[in-house]
Amino acid sequence: MRRTDYDAVVLGSALYAATWLSEANRFATRHLAALQARPVWLFGSGPLDARLAASNPPITRHAMEVTAPIGARGHHTFGGRLAPDAPLSPQVMATHAIGDFRNWDAMRAWARAIGAELAALDRGLAAEPDRPGR
Predict the structure, then answer these.
(1) How far apart, in whole angstroms, are the C-alpha atoms of residue 1 and residue 93?
(2) What is the sign of the dihedral through the CA atoms of 78, 84, 89 and 93?
(3) At CA 121, angle to CA 119 and CA 107, rounded to 5?
(4) For residue 76, what pLDDT is reported?
């Protein structure tokens, strides 16, 4: 990722056992300097429980360890999806809720809020970032 390629970044990962996928972790580590140089928002997708998914749990400790140096402006956790035909062992399937817990309206609202904040940044009106760990 070259510094001039993007004005802002939305970076996220599916969550597996409250952990970001290794590919997302590697991306965050590999591109840390470029991410620190622009506005970044983080998200996780994974809770397989409607009530938990609706509560927007905070970033997981593991993901925070990887992403804290970025200084992201915000984070959101969205519900995930587990299909009945997912390639998981029967034991794993028995301990997870099968279904789709994604809330597309919440995702669109979050994206609109990021767009509004970016527009405010362009006008020089944006507030200080809501950095994880503050």
Answers:
(1) 37
(2) positive
(3) 55
(4) 92
